[in-house]
Amino acid sequence: MKKVVIRECPDYTPDHVKTTLKESLEALGGLEKWIKPGDLVFLKVNLLTGKEPKEAVTTHPQLVKALTELLMELGALVILGDSPAGPFLQGRMRKIYQLTGMTTVAKETGASLNWNLESDPVYFSAGYRLKDFHVMKAIKEADHIINVSKMKTHSMTMMTGAVKNMFGIMPGLKKAELHFRFTDPIEFGHAMVDICEYASPVISIMDGIEAMEGAGPSAGDVVKNGMILVSEDPYSLDIVASEHMGIKPDSVPTLKAARQRNLCQSLEKVTLDTSLGEGIKKSFKLPDTREPDFLEKYGRWPVVGSIFKQISRKHLRPKPVVNPKKCTKCKECYTICPAEAIDMLEKVPGFRYDKCIRCYCCQEVCPEKAIWIYRPKILKWFGGTK
Fold it and tell me: The 4Fe-4S ferredoxin-type domain covers which part of the protein (predicted)?
């Protein structure tokens, strides 16, 4: 059975974070179980976009600093990095490192920031959907990867945690291409699992001290959550996190895909080492992107199901909408859209919904939270959503 450790940590006070993180890791055998002096360790943090730590969009720098210090105490060499949404360019990375606090972490600890923006093609024979793809060159050069994710809801995948965090080893706009290639959520989930399996992080850590609910992964609301989660198995870690957030594992494409491949166990088969006295359950507000599930109810009647499917795709699917009062015409959404379904109409984004693949990358990268998801109220009448 896989083990997941949860420890309470009320805030980002340095002593609280470092002590809690060290205790969590010791419950799994300590960092020395995986790391030796001289090892080059890549900390794959979540740096989705250039947001300050208080917005809970990215892995908090205090957790990254504590982990870096623990690694350096063992004699490891540490490099911090991610390939955020959008172009993978030095100027963009400099801004993101500064805003997210990673520049400060590097200065205070002596860790390196990843400035190697090159990528290498890899062949992964065990991939279910992905065998040939590109990864950051810095990932290949590291001895070990440690996965340092953020607990958040996600408009496309319901939650983003340890497994999806590894998507960031794929450089820049290559990620957008993958969205367009795998428009079905479960197929996309398999691709995420392929990348996670290739990366094989030695340990996965989740920043759940402050989390995000609602319109995640970037436009949601901050939740004071007070916990750090650690596991050697990213799938078990995500299962526990999904249970805590009130999300059914099978509604998370990465977990459903992992289950289909026998990589993921049920919560009952996870060994849970927790300091929480009242259990782990807590319901998060979920994204408004859930699609109607009544097709499954009527699926036994092909003709009826076909009619409902056509109606659903045209009239009942959630869709991104722009708030013109918040939009600054920065064109981030236009640049990122993998389906090229956005036009700049008088410099304000306009959506061609017949082309939109509902990946919600546009909402994800919008710096002003100007894109929201419209979800027809009539969906509630059908008694359920995915």
Answer: 318-347, 349-376
